[in-house]
Amino acid sequence: MADTGLKIVVIGAGMAGLLAGIKLREEGKHQFVIYEKADRIGGTWRENTYPGLTCDVPSHHYTYSFERNPDWSRHLPPGGEIQGYFERTCEKFGLYPFIRFGEELTQATYLDGRWQLQMASGLRDEADVVIAATGVLHHPNIPEIEGAESFAGAMFHSSRWDHGIDLSDQRIGVIGNGSTGVQIISALAGRVRHISHFQRTAQWIMPVENGYFSDEERARFRDDPAALEAVMDVSAYQAAVEGYSQVITGENGDGADYFIDSCKQNLESSVEDPELREKLRPDHAPLCKRLIFSPDYYEAIQRPDTALVTAGIKHIEASGIRTTDGKLHELDVIVYATGFHADAFMRPMQVQGRDGVKLEDFWADRPKAYLAVSMPDFPNFFMLNGPNGPVGNFSLIDIAELQWGYISQLIGRLAQLPGAAICPRREVLEEFERERIAAAKKTIWFTGGCHSWYLDAQGIPASWPWSYQRFVDKMSAPRWEDFEPAGLGDVSAA
Ligand code: NAP
Questions:
Q1: Closest to 10 in 3D by CA, of 122, 140, 138, 115
Q2: Among 1, 41, 79, 204, which is least packed by CB within 10 angstroms?
Q3: How far apart are the C-alpha atoms of 387 and 383, rounded to whole Å?
Q4: Spatial distance between the Cα atoms of 459 and 443, rounded to a whole number of angstroms
């Protein structure tokens, strides 16, 4: 069977797009280009630069499996170091010449067996395969709060941090207490004049150590692969990830006790003032929203120059935020740590598949994709970190690598069948969606009754609702009978 080099376009030079590029370059079989709308690589880690930015995956696990990093300074990786890691890796794997910066893809249309691509700049291209690696959390959610435009100070979203402002003598208001808000408060407390933390829903905080690696330790990790392997303790980490996923999915209800006890104990033992402790006590079970790991939030929020505000926000006025109890919180800076539109994915890009099927219509009820990777009527269009994949307190790099393993097999089959339109069958996706939604209703995100970005517009958890291991198994090889054209499974592997 012929094995033909394909033209592949990757959208986005964040963690997942770089992964695709590295793998395609290594394989050396296909022509490819990565289009990136910004002027630097890094995605999330380029856009987020807020004080305290940290990933809550243990540092040595937050890397590509083929490019470990012995040089992390802390047990949890700081955002700036993550960005540095991706920049070094991009350079080391010779990827920069393959990236076209400042090119935002606005339209992808499947026509006569190829994808016709249009950039905002006017540039056009075409491809046999499109890989959307556009990220999950990149469209800031900025709530419309009455009077916001009248605020006299600076105001920005956490992912658009204004580093031009010297905060040391400022009164800062931070809206939102997800992972981002909590990290910002912890980092700024004691370094600014005053902080008001606006909390709409209390959050459970899981205690976590975030110590430093000494110079000696880092040298050892560099020089001795066994030392790096020992600190990673891969089997313990994998067991923890699997155990956590089983708790979330309701497959192991008892396993939640550890998290519940740790969070409750953390609140009881860390917060002295009983009134503040009650304000910080959620009325939902831990894990119902994305669990927040923090070594120092409770310490920060108890400082005399930090205030927790639990009254609702009534409106914003020139000098600050007025809460529903009538109080004016005078502020110089307002930070929206209010999260992202997690359902956007590659939108606002216009994607039109076979027979004029529009992504906007296909996703009218909710974003969906077979095993988070591919969609009927959108042939040879594959996603990394697409809808309904595993998004939890674990490494999205691992998820992207698993997905790449699967996608590369689809691309391999296409190379053997030039011109084929490979996509899952419609009824396969429908059945998958039925099962996924039924399983999603058993997850703690649904049964716990919480509101969070894990839920779609219809209140159904959008994340992978089964165990982590099930995802690993599904990604090991495509079930060819689930895909069009028929007979893909009969093509002998190259
Ligand atoms: P988020 O988890 O969606 O939290 C948004 C916060 O803003 C919530 O506290 C929410 O309150 C509040 N909020 C939204 N609209 C509001 C309004 N109109 N008035 C008052 N409060 C409002 O967003 P995030 O903290 O940016 O985190 C998003 C995700 O990014 C995380 O879940 C995680 O996946 C990732 N992340 C990870 C890390 C890490 O690895 N450590 C760090 C940062 C971010 P309610 O709870 O009441 O809705």
A1: 115
A2: 1
A3: 9
A4: 12
**Which of 200, 203, 329 for mutating ligand 1's site (highest number of atoms within 8 Å of CB)?**
200
d(CA 383, CA 404): 9
pLDDT at 470: 94
d(CA 335, CA 7): 43
Which residues does ligand 1 sit against, CB inside 6 Å? 54-56, 137, 143, 158, 175-181, 183, 200-201, 290, 313, 337-339, 451, 453
pLDDT for res 418: 87
What does the pLDDT look like over 307-351, one tens digit per residue? Answer: 999 999 999 999 999 999 999 999 999 999 999 998 888 999 999
Strands 124-127 and 320-323: what pairing? unpaired
- Give long-range contacts, CB 8 A cutoff, 24+ apart: 41-44: 41/13, 41/14, 41/86, 41/87, 41/90, 41/99, 42/13, 42/14, 42/83, 42/86, 42/87, 43/12, 43/13, 43/14, 43/15, 43/16, 43/17, 43/135, 43/138, 44/14, 44/15, 44/135, 44/137, 44/138
What lies within 8 Å, CB to CB, of 278 at 6+ separation is none
Q: Give 55 Cα–ligand 1 centroid separation in angstroms.
A: 14
| CA–CA separation, 195 and 287 (whole Å) | 27
Nearest to 207 by CA among 252, 139, 270: 270
Residue 277 CA to ligand 1 centre (angstroms): 21
- The count of C-alpha atoms lying within 13 angstroms of the C-alpha of 181, restricted to the half-sphere facing its C-beta, is 26
pLDDT of residue 251: 84
Number of other CB atoms surrounding residue 111 within 10 Å: 11
Burial (Cβ within 10 Å: 0-12, 13-18, ≥19) of residue 419: exposed
Q: Give the pair of three-digit tokens for residue 413.
A: 């089959």
Contact 266, 298 (CB under 8 A): yes
Q: Does the predicted model carry a pTM greater than 0.90?
A: yes
The torsion angles phi and psi of 468, rounded to 5 degrees, stand at: -65, -45
Residue 493: is its pLDDT beyond 70? no
51 to 163, 181, 292, 349: CA distances (angstroms): 10, 10, 17, 31
Mean predicted lDDT score pLDDT of the chain: 95
Q: Which two structure tokens, joined as six digits, stand for 44?
A: 């999330």
- Going from the C-alpha of 377 to that of each of 162, 246, 345, 430, the distances in angstroms are 42, 33, 18, 13
Which of 366, 492, 349, 486 is CA-nearest to residue 423? 486
Residue written as token pair 């100070």: 153
**What was the pLDDT predicted at 391?**
79
